[in-house]
Structures are given as structure tokens and as C-alpha cells.
């Protein structure tokens, strides 16, 4: 009941909402990626991710990942493209949702992913987020995850981002620089 009331209040506030200060939805990011999959050895790689604000509440999202596998397995390459929606729910705090088409090119798997969470400017130079995520690719089991992220901003444009997610199929850590604009 409380969740329904909160969701209804957020939807009713949409026309009157102002953009949460200090949260940029236009950025480019390069990450080191560490994945600890169930039933396999740990793997490492890198990712490029980005987002571009379309207007006050909508943004486009895109990313590319390469995970280095040990022989005899080929390296895994994947990309995603989608959109996001965010709405302020408190001063400097947004509720966000993302939906993306996913393509894993190594084994030609298609699918979709979604994330819903809360993102907040917790201090002048630090923001954090918590989210739930879901991903389903062809010929694979769906992965549901809980995650957290944080960004320390050295300047309004440059920061270091870190993200950790624990899913039913793996555990993932991403760390890297972010340029916000």
C-alpha cells in the first residue's frame, strides 16, 4: 500500500517536478570490469558507457563491453542501446528507470535489460544510487540483480565512478573515470 501511494505521488508530481540538482544524465564513462560468474572462473575486461539527456526527464543510454576469457572460450563482446526516464522525488534525488535492447555479439544473442532505482547527490562532490536490474538474453537464464553505485566528483565535469551488482548468475564490479557534460 505504501509503495502504491509513493508511486502515485511521484506520477502526480511529474508535471510540477524540477530537475534534481547536480545529477547529470549526459556523460561518457570508461570502466574496468570484473565479473565473478557462477560456475566459471573470474573474468576481467573493460566497458564504455554513456548517456545523453534528451530533455528534463528522458535520456538515451548506450554501452559496449569486452570481457577477456581464458582459452578455449572466445572473448565476450556485447553492446546495449536504450532510453532512460528520471523524475525528482526529493531535493537532489531522482527515481530512475532504464530499458535497453542488448546484443551479445560473440554468440549472437539478443535480449533486453531494465533497471529501476534511486539516484541522489548525497554531498557536493559525491552521488550514490541503488537499483534493481533484470537482463534476459536468448539461450540464457534471466539475471536479476541488486546494485549500488557511487561517483566522487573532482570537478563538475570529471569524476570516478564505481558500481557493484550481485545477481543470481554473477557478481560484477565496474570502476572508471566519468566525464559529465
Automatic annotation (TrEMBL):
Signal found in the keyword field: yes
Keyword annotations of the record: Signal
Listed Gene3D superfamilies: Porin
Signal sequence extent: 1-20
Domain of life: Bacteria
Protein name per Swiss-Prot or TrEMBL: Uncharacterized protein
Amino acid at each position: 500500500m505504501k509503495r502504491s501511494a509513493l508511486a502515485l505521488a511521484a506520477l502526480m508530481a511529474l508535471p510540477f517536478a524540477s530537475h534534481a540538482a547536480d545529477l547529470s544524465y549526459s556523460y561518457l564513462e570508461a570502466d574496468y570490469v570484473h565479473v565473478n560468474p557462477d560456475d566459471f572462473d573470474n573474468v576481467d575486461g573493460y566497458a564504455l558507457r554513456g548517456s545523453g539527456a534528451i530533455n528534463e526527464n528522458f535520456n538515451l543510454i548506450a554501452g559496449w563491453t569486452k570481457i577477456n576469457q581464458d582459452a578455449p572460450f572466445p572473448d565476450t563482446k556485447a553492446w546495449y542501446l536504450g532510453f532512460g526516464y528520471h523524475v525528482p522525488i526529493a531535493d537532489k534525488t531522482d527515481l530512475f528507470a532504464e530499458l535497453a535492447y542488448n546484443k551479445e555479439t560473440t554468440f549472437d544473442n539478443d535480449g533486453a535489460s531494465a533497471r529501476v532505482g534511486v539516484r541522489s547527490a548525497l554531498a557536493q562532490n559525491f552521488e550514490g544510487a541503488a537499483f534493481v536490474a533484470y537482463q534476459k538474453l536468448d539461450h540464457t537464464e534471466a539475471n536479476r540483480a541488486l546494485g549500488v553505485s557511487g561517483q566522487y566528483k573532482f570537478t563538475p565535469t570529471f569524476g570516478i565512478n564505481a558500481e557493484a551488482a550481485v545477481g543470481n548468475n554473477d557478481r560484477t564490479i565496474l570502476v572508471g573515470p566519468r566525464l559529465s557534460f
